[in-house]
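Q&A log
Question type: sequence-to-structure
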Amino acid sequence: MTAAFRESMRIFASYGGGPAVWILYALSLVVLFLFLEDGYKRIVFIWTPLFVTMLFFFPPFYVLYSKVSDASTYYRVLWLLPSEVSVCAAACVLMERASKPVLKVLIPAAAAVLIILTGSFTYTSDIASKAENPYHLPQNVMDICDYISPGEGRYEVCAVFPPELVYYVRQYRTDIRLVYGREMVEPAWAGEGWNGVYLQMAEPVICMEDLVSEARASERGPVKYYVLGSDRETDTDPCEAGLIFETEIGGYRVYRDPQAEAGTGF
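Response status: OK
Response body:
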């Protein structure tokens, strides 16, 4: 139980990126506790968040959560705390009690500035990038999917994609069946189950004979297309393993297996 409490403290400390958000939230709770009169709103903004916070630090709850869900997502319990909304609610309460018109302007402005200063600019994040299209997906993935799509009268086509692209394929087209997906590449799930195709694709140097053999034996097959990074190292030319080079799109080479059918056809 001690370890569970320490883990809860660690998650709480890292949530929000620092103490500034929690300090601002605590101040808003004090204001709401002192001046908010509506009983229903007090339940929403004061008592329920306090109960959730106590539950978050309650070790048996962490243990139970870990058994029924992924412990790495325990931080999501804190999503139930209406932090920024409470700051806005506290500002509204102070505005209602302000006697001077100038305060009714300064209070919401100060609240907005505090919320901005305690946050971070999303677009400076390392994981943020400028959208290439209205879908907010990499354009090369969309182009590859359009190229290998099963076409009119076919239900779906099976393909092998590099691990870094599997996140996007199913977001764009549902008629492309992947030999492996997030269940293999997501860090929290990686290693669960067995997928010979993924194991070959994850090798520093892909053994093409083994990759094609695993793909042809896959229960999710028949695999018609193989998408490989242009700089991806293979032990032999994929064509020597029985594949046919189709095209190169956005830094990825597309190969076709002539032994595979285009899809299920229904």
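Response note: The beta strands are 157-160, 176-178, 223-229, 244-249, 252-256.
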